[in-house]
Amino acid sequence: MYLENNPYVNSSGSYVKSPGISRITRDEREPLIKLTNVWKIYQMGEVEFAALKGIDLEIYEGEFLVVLGPSGSGKSTLMNLLGCLDIPSEGTVYLNSEDISELDESELARIRGQMIGFIFQSFNLIPTLSTEENVLLPLEFQEENREAARKKASYLLDIVGLSNKKKNLPSQLSGGQRQRVAIARSLAVNPPIILADEPTGNLDTKTGDYILKFLDGLHEREGKTIIIVTHDLDLVKYATRVVYIRDGEIEKIEERRKNGTEE
Q: Which SUPFAM superfamilies does this chain map to (predicted)?
């Protein structure tokens, strides 16, 4: 059973806390990501459509942030900006104090490769590659030693409970197993930020809970910054902050405790 091999989830299904992580208050540090008056406008023929309207948001290292909104709210557009997959039409997005609009595509690719691990609802695995080869991909882009990369890929598949599926193709895996491969791949270069788009959207409740507890363990044990974009209100219980977005605007930002209650 994969829960037994998960260093972040114990046998009761709860995450394992690390005793040694210190937390610094947000007031004592600079934001990891900062959006200032951000607009994203798409041209549809002669009509302009504003997917994001004047977004101001600061995200700090070590947060578990949930961006919550219905379909068409602009949350996926926001995710693309947070992940350096797109740049704003107006306003500024800073990552580590760098204005991403000032960077060329190779520099954006470097940031994505080194700083951000992506987890997508549709998994985005390459169907002709084995699970091990899918996890190896980010390491090969970093030009890591092949033998060391294989050992790391094997370790990551082990901690997500798939050490016996290394040679399987994605088509031979269940949806939950494919999502665990996607998580292993997202951790390959040990990025400080994990950005997840509807990570439980295609999963049953039990598997979805496992995935979220695993991400929660990464947050609690390693202090990773977790950003989840979702329409699912149930995910709020894992958040330290929740950003509510609707019609391209932030309605409110809510501080929360990790048991799901508002502070």
A: P-loop containing nucleoside triphosphate hydrolases
What's the pTM? 0.82
Class of domain 30-255: alpha beta
Give per-residue pLDDT as tens, 190-228: 999 999 998 888 778 888 888 889 899 989 998 999 999
Of the candidates 92, 69, 74, the residue with the CA atom closest to the CA atom of residue 252: 69
- Residue 259's pLDDT band, with cuts at 50, 70 and 90, is low
